[in-house]
Design goal:
By secondary structure, this protein is of the alpha/beta class. It folds into two domains: 46-360, Purple Acid Phosphatase, chain A, domain 2 (4-Layer Sandwich); 389-597, 5'-nucleotidase,  domain 2. It has 15 helices and 28 strands. The strands form eight sheets. It has a six-stranded mixed β-sheet. Strands 8-9-11-14-16-15 form a six-stranded mixed β-sheet, with helices on both faces. A hairpin with an 8-residue loop joins strand 24 and strand 25 (520-527). Helix 5 packs antiparallel against helix 9 (369-386) and helix 10 (408-421) packs across helix 15. The longest helix has 18 residues, at 369-386. The radius of gyration is 25 Å and the shape is globular. 52% of the residues are buried. The model is unreliable at 1-41 and 600-604 (pLDDT under 50). One of its GO terms (molecular function) is 5'-nucleotidase activity. InterPro entries: 5'-Nucleotdase_C, 5'-Nucleotdase_C_sf, 5_nucleotidase/apyrase, Calcineurin-like_PHP, Metallo-depent_PP-like. This is 5'-nucleotidase. It holds the Pfam family 5_nucleotid_C. Keywords: Hydrolase, Nucleotide-binding, Signal.
């Protein structure tokens, strides 16, 4: 059997030695003194604190299916990488409660995207079930993530403060949504009119006489990956500038132990959850590296998210001293345990004491009965909709779980959008595009309930496209259409390409050996077998997020003659129903519309 393992234990040990040399007198004393019994002292000098961290839960109350429900780890018996089933809030609650045993001081924290892009059992109820579940498992504090803004700032405030949905009302007679028992932190999210933060910038917890402050931020680029309506009237500040500002404010208040909760992350060199990225952080790249290197050294630990990766790394702070930076993958499949000591004399985190490890949320432990009851309650409410069959497939059709730039499920979604919007009265679409980040799951052949193998239920389709974005058809010139393809690999997307999923009538070559816009081989582009005419007009279908220029595609926003169609989810379900049956199921698309030259990179 695979072991639970830990991430970064070797790198932590190296970092402790390096930090001790640099910190000098701040290094931990001998064991006897560490417990406050040396030199005649009667009171402990240090207080132990355990932090349990999660991120990017995305409302996955039920155990996630397909590749979204596994974690890669090394099997000690064979030395090979294996995919271990993981996740499910009933198991997460058990894991966290077991982890807290024996720890007098334990706080559970998160780094954003707790809600949003959620499967149906949570998403159908505007994520009220997930907030209630987080209350049950004992979440103490979280930063906001970009997906907390999917339904706008007013809805986020409702998640914090409670109250029934303004349109759908209360879901059960006699029950009113009470909101989060924990604070949402949004230090870098301010009102354009007032300049004030939308939510609290930080939260302070007194741990047996030592004040510990938590600063929460989301990524500065949130407006680029959320619909315009979701962030209307808000400004998103720089992560480093914001954290350093509030770290200074906390220090002025006598809070010297500080932890940053950041909804931005990194890309480890290995997808094995307990990969050791090295004491100097050489095994991790991505935005979090520069962020971590510039955050005030007073911040003793950094908990991150957004990239859905797992790591427990040491990245040097501005003084060159290694500092713990962690992420627990996504969907509740992992949690991070961070152990540290608080100096009762200075009120600071003893940096050489900080150690971190990721642990798998395995499904071979007892379910937490209170979370089972919560899940059963909402599952019964959702069942009439969730269990309805909408289509049939011959095998798994991978989207989120695909490592390719062109994903079979992405192609299927784009085909569904073109089919639903090609009629003249529906917009007259000639081609359709789907953003890869909007594909939130796989279609799995194996039955997840009583529906039978190969049956796609409404709930499973909802898990794939949970945003319910409205579709748009716009007119773009041929030149603008080419710009759309080039913007996948240039501009803000040059470093991390966002390769759009395309309908089956569009083909082209992507040469990743080249740089920037030149990666798109313009002469290779064919729509319905013909080259693109730069001066001609084309009707292009995309969801409202892409059509508004989201994900770094301003060419979409320049389109004209907009027609708003049905939601992406409605089109997807309609296509599954009309193009498949029990006797004629859909096979996975070949995913051969984009010819890729060179080594690709999965950025879904």
């Amino acid at each position: 059997m695979p072991i639970s393992g830990s991430t970064g234990r070797r790198s932590t040990a190296l970092a402790v030695a390096a930090a001790a040399a640099l910190f000098g007198t701040m290094a931990l004393p001998a064991t006897a003194e560490a417990h406050g019994r040396g030199h005649g002292h009667d009171k402990p000098k240090y207080e132990d604190l355990q932090l349990l961290a999660i991120n990017d839960f995305h409302g996955n109350l039920e155990p996630p299916a397909g590749s979204s429900g596994t974690i890669n780890e090394i099997d000690p018996a064979t030395g090979k990488t294996v995919a271990t089933p993981a996740g499910g809030v009933e198991y997460l609650a058990t894991a966290l409660r077991d982890a807290r045993k024996g720890h007098a001081n334990s706080l559970t924290v998160a780094a954003g995207d707790i809600i949003g892009a959620s499967p149906l059992v949570s998403g159908l109820f505007h994520d009220e079930p997930t907030i209630e579940a987080m209350n049950e498992i004992g979440l103490d504090v979280t930063s906001v993530g970009n997906h907390e803004f999917d339904e706008g700032s007013a809805e986020l405030l409702r998640m914090q403060n409670g109250g029934c949905h303004p349109t759908d009302g209360c879901y059960e007679k006699g029950r009113k949504f009470e909101g989060a028992d924990f604070p949402y932190l949004a230090a870098n999210v301010t009102s354009e009119k007032t300049g004030k933060t939308l939510l609290k910038p930080y939260w302070v917890k007194n741990v047996r006489g030592v004040k510990v402050g938590f600063i929460g931020v989301t990524l500065e680029g949130t407006p680029n990956i959320v619909t315009a309506a979701g962030v209307q009237g808000l400004k998103f500040g720089n992560e480093v500038t914001t954290i350093n500002k509030y770290a200074a404010e906390l220090k002025r208040q006598g809070v010297n132990s500080i932890v940053a909760l950041i909804h931005e992350g990194g890309l480890p060199a290995s997808n094995v959850y307990n990969y050791d990225c090295g004491a100097a952080g050489a095994g991790i790249s991505g935005p979090i590296v520069n962020i971590a290197k510039n955050i005030d050294p007073a911040v003793g630990a950094i908990v991150t998210g957004h990239t859905h990766n797992s790591y427990a790394c040491m990245i040097p702070d501005p003084n060159g001293v290694p500092r713990s930076v962690t992420s627990a993958a996504s969907f509740g499949r992992l949690y991070t345990e961070i152990d540290l000591k608080l100096d009762k004399r200075t009120g600071s985190i003893v940096r050489p004491s900080v150690s971190a490890a990721n642990h798998v949320v395995r499904r071979d432990v007892p379910k937490a009965p209170d979370l089972t009851a919560l899940l059963d309650r909402y599952s019964k409410l959702a069942a009439p909709i969730a269990n309805r069959a909408t289509g049939y497939i011959t095998a798994d059709i991978n989207g989120r779980g695909s490592t390719a730039l062109e994903k079979p499920l992405g192609d299927l979604i784009a085909d569904a959008q073109l089919a639903g919007l090609s009629a003249a009265d529906k917009g007259g679409a000639q081609v359709a595009f789907m953003n890869p980040g909007g594909i939130r799951a796989d279609l799995v052949y194996k039955a997840t309930g009583a529906e039978g193998d190969g049956v796609v239920t409404y709930g499973e389709a909802f898990a794939v496209q949970p945003f319910t974005n409205m579709m748009q058809v716009k007119t773009l010139t041929g030149a603008q259409l080419v710009q759309v393809l080039q913007q996948q690999v240039s501009g803000s997307n040059e470093a991390s390409p966002k390769v759009l999923q395309i309908s089956d009538n569009l083909h082209y070559t992507l040469d990743l050996n080249k740089a920037g816009a030149a990666r798109v081989v313009v002469d290779s582009i064919r729509l319905n077998g013909a080259p693109i005419d730069p001066a001609a007009n084309y009707r292009v279908a995309a969801n409202e997020f892409l059509a508004g220029g989201g994900d770094g595609f301003p060419a979409f926003a320049a389109g004209t003659d907009k027609l708003v169609g049905a939601s992406d989810l409605d089109l997807f379900n309609a296509y599954l129903t009309s193009h498949s049956s029990a006797s004629a199921p859909i096979a996975p698309p070949a995913a051969d519309r984009i010819k890729v030259i060179g080594i690709g990179q999965d950025n879904s």
